[in-house]
Amino acid sequence: MNGKSLLQMFALGLTGSWIFPASPAAAQSAAVLPDSNAVMGFESPALWVAKGNSAIATTVSATATRTQGSSAYSLASPANQITLTSVPVASTAIALKGVGDVGATFQADIMLPIVAGNPINRGSLQLFLSSPSRRLNNVLIGNVDFTPIRLGLYTTLKFPIPDGVRTALAGASFGDLTFQFMLNSPGTGAGTYLLDNLRVHSAPLVKANAGTKTPPGYGGSVDLVAIGNTPTAQQFDAGGAGARWLSSQARYCRLDDGATGPGLRWHGVIHLHLYRG
Questions:
Q1: Contacts of 145 (CB under 8 A, 6+ apart)
Q2: What is the pLDDT of residues 186-207, one digit of tens each?
Q3: pTM for the whole structure
Q4: Whole-number pLDDT of residue 232
Q5: CA-to-CA distance for 132 and 178, rounded, in angstroms?
Q6: CA-atom Rg of the chain in angstroms
Q7: What pLDDT shows up at residue 5?
């Protein structure tokens, strides 16, 4: 091939259409991620991958017995140890709001089987987190023991977010965050576990001077829990003059079937959280 031919080819390259294959990183960024809020809301079993440590067949499905959204994640007859790994979640997820705040926690709702597979050791749940772009690799967020948890009712589990994880995720843009739950269930093959509503809970710190009005969520709080059809009442101190609760005169809140007419029913448990606002 002479110099003239090379020159002609070079000219063709400048004026023609050259197509180069996309790099793996570019192809990944161009891929459409599933709805991150649906992932954290356990809206579809397809958004989480279950893997057990034994040959026991674990059945996963969606259930309408939920705490938010349209569905929760149902895990029936799990292996003695099983992991649930999410598809990637983006930093734009509403459920991640406040992840960089001091004191922030990851929270998730879980319902344990009505009958414990092992009455002596009910098991536990661990939460891990990974994000290659933020240099987080299978970081242990926390472990919650099931021993004090009521059976057959949804309970909110809390996992304080380590400072290193908060710093890495705060204000960052990413699309590769994955969560992994490790369920340790001593009662192999027994019962059905329900999971729902993975989210961040945080209350940003406020610097206040005398007379500064605090935002909602600050001050004392109380949880009112009503189970089944049994009326429940709980009193709390409104905090004296200037305190504002749901009612300026009320010192307690009551749930009563008569408020909405006879025949009121609910599944499991109602949590009513009252705070000074």
A1: 122, 124
A2: 765 678 999 999 999 987 665 6
A3: 0.69
A4: 61
A5: 10
A6: 25
A7: 47
Contact between residue 105 and residue 144 where contact means Cβ atoms under 8 Å apart: no
Both tokens of 37, joined, read 């809020």
Q: How far is CA 235 from CA 48, 77, 198, 223, in A?
A: 41, 41, 30, 10
Half-sphere exposure of 89 (CA within 13 A, CB side): 27
Buried-exposed string 155-184: b where 16+ CB fall within 10 A, e elsewhere: bbbebebeeebbebbeeeebbbbbbbbbbb
Stretches in the chain below the pLDDT threshold 50: 3-30, 220-221, 238-271, 273-277
Give the CATH number of domain 33-201: 2.60.120.260
Tell me where in the chain the CATH 2.60.120.260 domain(s) lie.
33-201
Tokens of 254: 């009551």
Q: Which two tokens stand for residue 260?
A: 């909405």
